[in-house]
Design a protein that fits this description.
The complex is a heterotrimer. Chain A is of the alpha+beta class. Chain A is built from five helices and five strands. Chain B is an alpha+beta fold. In chain B, a hairpin with a 5-residue loop joins strand 24 and strand 25. Classes of the chains: A alpha+beta, B alpha+beta, C alpha+beta.
């Protein structure tokens, strides 16, 4: 069994571990590091529940090997709140009722967070396209769009 | 209706922010796969590639050689403990693991226990099974034919594949009404298999403590108490006694009915934990979830409506073949094998109605659960709402006009339907007229007429549904004999803060918030200071769980009733403290004051403190109450939806341009949450109308068993829902509320289907089965000679 | 879903990667974005002993014009194509294509080279590259060779690449003046493979007739299809509706689709026709024609 020693900077902190070649990034985050905010929903890169930011861009961590993230920056939902202050996207999801069961929420928020870094005032259409790799079964997306708009306005 | 409480108190009618959100937005929800226990093992499951096959041999030697694999559990292992079969909620039987044969593709064949999920997966790969394929029965109509292979050979006296025949209504009177009718319309309507596909799949961590003899199971279940009882009944003979079983339902990533049943994986994990003495985790993957967990729908309906020339509907008759797969694993109340299908008279004053359903075994996964609806209500509503349009088309009437002509008028409530229900309250015309006004119905009809002249295809579809939720009154409603009450226990602490525990389990509906608001409404304790707990059978009072929109109608009512018991006691304490008679006190949210002397008052907080520090002699200390609420009737939420679609003549692709949903769920606890429930329900109604379907080829191979082919809508396909309300309180619910989580899932599919058919009606199209795929529409366009 | 065990290699240079592939032979598979390969490994539809990750090799990620050629490094992410000003302004057909591949998150990992090298007729770049007349640059132990894209796809999941070769670059001739291209796709929802898709690249003559047309079809047969008959038919014609309809008909004739949940053979053929016409119309509009 081939293993590799990898160092991944997760939410700003370097984390080193010895991992099997085939270890999926999502299992590295959830099980090796014990950070369970990142979820697994479909296993085939369709649902986006496992979305994390890799060097600032959303990726589906169930369809990536942990070893591929060696030497790179990963941000998970646990990294959104800084110095006990919620990120505007977190506030937006709460204020606009952008979540129900909460399972897709971490991935949905990270995708939205990355969108707002790239596009400060996205239109509704741009938001809907940007989150189209994240499935939500509860909200019907209307309030997720509002949550992103809330965060965009707040960041102005 | 203006809220009775202040925003600080946050009782009914306030859109307070959800109490569960702070943990979810930080990634601190605690779902079952987040449970990690010391020395935990992992279960992975070997599944059948065949839909029907004899198992000749299971060879485990190679699997046991895989590093980390500790054991392989087969049907033979479980048979030693008589645990290889288990009862379903419909008193049928289901294999935990097979001993003789498999009955559907992806059925559980063996469980591999290993030290990691990676090792368990490798072990599954290494288990070798010899199968001898048997004839496969996929089509339920063929299953009913004489000479069809009898599938349930385990049932000694079973000579055919019919599970049940159920009928309701007056057949003779209905036949007579049809014979005398001016107009009769008939339509075959099929609603295919679909799957709830909650984003979190199912799973559990079973933890048997050998020293204490206690089994704790963390489990994705919507009904933890019922599960505990089922486990006690199934495994009592191997020493699992109900007081030693604890089911904990942690945060759940969506349920929608899919987390009501007991799946074999749970039982195998429990058995593995008992055998090994280690905690055992089982988390199914998405393909297992779609391919093996309980499905919904699969109703083949032949629907007929009789009417007078003027459009007055006089009778409805529906004959249904229900494909249940190899066992009836529906989750209906026991006396209702076809659930609440008898709501199929809908919002209309049918004088005569008759419905019959035949349940059938086939070589498919078991089920017949709801998909975000109250036991077969969606099927019933789809039938009657489609038929209303079919009749309107036959009579060349506007479908809105036909509905307005046939609605049960408000003054007839409580209304006794031809199929035996007492509808509690309704104002159907009010909801439809509001929806027509919001969407601009008349202008849309004009636009449609102009577009038709230009060859463009647009359609307008209406659905005026009535639901039946909140099961249910104990006289008729039970699951395996357990009456369908629900419960609440409230404890008010000395400083006037409270904990409220319920027998239900939220899966995203926001119970921690709305239940707190109910207590706030009734006691004036701010919702922020009411802690709501559910899902732990060691601490919560017994209840039947959350499904069929029963949380607000039943458990919510229990919350109000428990709070009122507390208020009664509080009144006695207040009278004692204020030295007046109870009759001299008046209640306003949060305090009792003396009639005519409002400055003399005691707040609920003062009373709570006194309950522990200065209670009247002869009275027990404390301020607590429990209610087991047995609803006097079901509730009947309703609404009218209007959908506008445009059709691409080149591809047949349907695009929803607008969708207006007017809902009436009685009095509203939290408007923000109600809207959220409706948005989600609409999306789960639109999806089966246009996208979702699980089908099987002639060999019983599943089609649509992953998210590559089981199509959940994204934000791009989902329209921007427009919602509005009317409010017609339930007369029998203590809060006047009705439940709302599923209304939109029930009401939306016929609105979409009616809109698409309406777009093509001038070409002579009368019906299209859902999901309305681009190809289905394109075939019609081609046949009619209007394809691009 | 857990992949079976394999060994993972991350060579730091193209030369090392090729040496490794040459040594491992059929036991190895090249890992680029992994958006097709990893799900297959997870479902255990495929098993490999070695994965050779080319994602860490510098210098494979670029979009540039050089000497009348657009050069796209094989490891260029689809999202980079979406965001490239050069692509947006001069190659809208590539923007059309990138925007309908999988979903926006997958496009942050998926690469243009991987989309071609996977040899999946359901992928979107192949049709576009066929329409554009692109070339594929492959490097192996014996050096570099250039393969015209219409000779690249050999069968279902099979390309002209040898086991020890790596696709390094895509070359697209910069279209002359009065050129335009478009890619249109019928998908049931975001993230779905095409029921049918068509790419069209058109150059108009000064008199408004079609000087040259390239047409590629997605998911219309076991390999991506170049609609040669339709292309020939269009040359020299005025782009009126009847002509485009006939081109669509000829393109559909070139298809050999198989039925699946996306549609029957008949439907897919027809959708190839409809989308060819739509792609041509958009291409001609972009070329400045009517």
């Amino acid at each position: 069994m081939a293993t590799h020693t990898i160092t991944v900077t997760v939410n700003g902190a370097p984390r080193t571990a010895e991992v099997e070649s085939r270890l999926l990034l999502v299992h590295f985050i959830r099980e090796t590091l014990g950070m369970t905010g990142t979820h697994i929903g479909c296993d085939t890169s369709h649902c986006g529940a496992c979305t994390v930011l890799l060097d600032g861009e959303p990726v589906k961590s169930c369809t990536m090997l942990a070893v591929q993230a060696d030497g790179r920056q990963v941000m998970t939902v646990e990294g959104l709140e800084k110095d006990a202050k919620l990120d505007p996207i977190q506030e937006g999801f709460m204020q606009e009722h952008g979540l129900q069961c909460g399972f897709c929420t971490p991935g949905m928020m990270l995708t939205s967070y990355a969108l707002l870094r790239r596009n400060k005032q996205p239109t509704e259409d741009e938001i809907r396209h940007a989150i189209s790799g994240n499935l939500c079964r509860c909200t019907g997306y209307v309030n997720i769009v509002k949550a992103v708009q809330y965060a965009a306005a707040k960041q102005q | 209706m203006a809220p009775k409480t202040t925003a600080e108190v946050g009782g009914m009618g306030h859109s307070i922010k959800r109490k569960e959100d702070p943990r979810f937005i930080r990634g601190q929800g605690h779902y079952v796969d987040d449970v990690v226990l010391p020395n935990m093992l992992y279960l992975d499951i070997v599944r059948s590639p065949f839909a029907h096959a004899k198992i000749k041999a299971i060879r485990t030697e190679n699997a046991l050689k895989v590093p980390g694999v500790l054991a392989v559990i087969t049907g033979e292992t479980l048979k030693q403990y008589n645990l290889h079969w288990m009862p379903t909620l419909m008193s049928d039987t289901q294999m935990v693991l097979p001993v003789e044969k498999v009955m559907y593709q992806s059925q559980e064949v063996a469980g591999v226990i290993a030290t990691s999920r990676y090792a368990a997966a490798d072990g599954v790969e290494a288990v070798e099974v010899d199968y001898e394929p048997l004839p496969v029965v996929v089509d339920p109509f063929k299953a009913l034919e004489p000479g069809a292979p009898v599938l349930r050979t385990d049932k000694k006296d079973k000579k055919d594949n019919r599970i049940f025949h159920w009928e309701v209504g007056d057949r003779a009177a209905t036949d007579k009404a049809f014979a005398e009718a001016d107009v009769k319309v008939q339509q075959d309507i099929y609603i295919p298999r679909i799957h709830v596909a909650s984003i979190e799949t199912c799973g559990c961590v079973a933890d048997f403590d050998r020293v204490r003899g206690k089994l704790t199971v963390y489990m994705t279940t919507q009904a933890p108490h019922a599960i505990r009882t089922v486990v006690a009944l199934v495994a009592g003979h191997v020493g699992l006694s109900e007081e030693k079983i604890r089911i904990i339902s942690p945060d759940i990533g969506g349920g929608f009915g899919g987390k009501v049943p007991v799946y074999p994986g749970y039982v195998i994990a429990i058995a593995a934990s008992v055998v090994t003495g280690h905690p055992v985790k089982w988390i199914e993957d998405r393909m297992e979830n779609l391919q093996a967990d309980s499905f919904a729908r699969d109703y083949h309906m032949k629907a007929e409506v009789a009417a007078k020339k003027d459009g007055t509907m006089t009778a409805i008759r529906i004959k249904t073949v229900a494909d249940h797969g190899y066992t009836d694993a529906a989750a209906n109340p026991s006396k209702f094998p076809a659930g609440m299908f008898s709501i199929c008279t809908g919002s209309y004053g049918f004088k005569n109605a008759f419905a019959e359903v035949d349940g059938v075994y086939t070589n498919k996964p078991p089920g017949g659960i709801a998909y975000r609806c109250s036991f077969r209500v969606t099927e019933a509503v789809h039938a009657v709402e489609r038929m209303a349009d079919v009749l309107a088309q036959e009579l060349k009437m506007d479908p809105a006009e036909l509905r307005l002509k046939n609605f049960i008028p408000p003054e007839q409530f409580p209304y006794h339907s031809a199929l035996g229900w007492e509808y509690d309250s309704g104002n159907y015309a009010g909801a439809l007229k509001k929806a027509m006004e919001i969407i601009g119905y008349d202008a849309l009809r004009k636009e449609q007429a102009e577009k038709r002249k230009r060859g463009e295809l647009m359609g307008i579809g209406i659905s005026s549904f009535t639901e039946i939720v909140g099961a249910g009154p104990s006289k008729h409603f039970d699951i395996l004999g357990i009456k369908m009450f629900d419960s609440c226990e409230i404890r008010v602490h000395p400083t006037g803060k409270a904990i409220a525990r319920f027998g239900t389990k939220s899966q995203g509906q926001g119970h921690e918030t709305t239940y707190a608001q109910i207590v706030a409404e009734e006691l004036g304790i701010p919702a922020a200071h009411v802690e709501v707990e559910e899902g732990d059978t060691d601490t919560a009072p017994y209840g039947l769980g959350t499904y069929a929109s029963r949380s607000t109608p039943v458990a919510g009512a229990a919350g109000a009733m428990a709070a009122r018991k507390i208020r009664d006691k509080a009144k006695k304490i207040a009278a004692y403290l204020l030295e007046v008679s109870e009759d001299d006190l008046v209640w306003e949210p949060g305090k009792f004051s003396v009639k005519g002397a409002p400055q003399k008052s005691k707040t609920i907080q003062e009373i709570a403190f006194a309950a522990y520090t200065n209670h009247p002699q002869g009275m027990e200390a404390g301020l607590e109450a429990v209610s087991y609420y047995d609803p006097p009737n079901l509730t009947f939420p309703f609404g009218s939806y209007i959908c506008v679609v445009d059709i691409d003549r080149g591809t047949g692709m349907v695009k929803i341009r607008r969708f207006v949903a007017v809902d009436d769920c009685g009095n509203i606890i939290n408007p923000m949450i109600v809207d959220g429930q409706i948005h989600g329900g609409l999306t789960m109604g639109m999806a089966p109308a246009l996208l979702e379907e699980i089908s099987y080829d002639e060999n019983g191979n599943i089609q649509g068993g992953s998210f590559m082919d089981y199509l959940l809508p994204t934000a791009v396909e989902t329209p921007k829902w427009e919602t509005a309300k009317t409010v017609t309180p339930s007369p029998h619910h203590p809060l006047g509320a009705k439940g709302v989580g599923e209304s939109a899932t029930v009401g939306a599919p016929p609105a979409v289907a009616n809109a698409v058919v309406d777009a093509l009606a001038h070409l002579g199209v009368r019906h299209i089965d859902i999901p309305i795929t681009p190809e289905k529409v394109w075939k019609i366009l081609k046949e009619k000679g209007v394809a691009e | 879903m857990i992949p079976a065990t394999f060994d993972y290699h991350a060579p730091g240079s193209l030369a090392d990667a090729i040496t490794l592939l040459d040594k491992l032979g059929d036991e190895a598979k090249v890992l680029s974005g992994g958006m097709s390969l990893l799900p297959m490994l997870k479902i255990r539809l495929a098993q490999v002993a070695h994965l050779v990750d080319i994602g860490r090799i510098p210098g494979l990620d670029y979009i540039k014009e050089e000497g009348g050629t657009l050069k796209i490094g094989a490891a260029t992410k689809e999202s980079a194509l979406e965001r490239s000003d050069l692509i947006r302004s001069k190659y809208p057909i590539l923007l059309d294509t990138a925007l309908v591949i999988a979903d926006p998150i997958v496009r942050n990992r998926a690469t243009a080279g991987g989309n071609l090298a996977h040899g999946d007729p359901a992928n979107d770049h192949p049709a576009t590259m066929l329409a554009l007349g692109a070339s594929i640059v492959a490097r192996g132990p014996k050096g570099e060779r250039t393969i015209p894209v219409d000779q690249f796809f050999k069968g279902l999941f099979t390309t002209a690449l040898a086991a020890n070769e790596i696709l390094t670059e895509i070359r697209i001739p910069t279209p002359p003046a009065r050129s335009g291209g478009a890619y249109v796709k019928l998908e049931r929802k975001v993230g779905d493979f095409a029921t049918a898709g068509a790419a069209a690249q058109v150059t108009l003559a000064a008199n408004g007739t079609i000087e040259k047309a390239g047409i590629g079809l997605t998911n219309a047969g076991p390999t991506p299809i170049k609609a040669v008959e339709a292309e020939k038919f269009l040359a020299g014609k005025k782009p009126d509706d009847a002509t485009l309809q006939e081109a669509g008909r000829l393109a559909a004739k070139a298809t050999n689709p198989s039925a699946d949940r996306r549609g029957s053979v008949e439907y897919k053929r027809e959708m190839a026709r409809v989308h060819t016409v739509r792609a041509l119309k958009a291409a001609i509009r972009r070329a400045g024609g009517q």
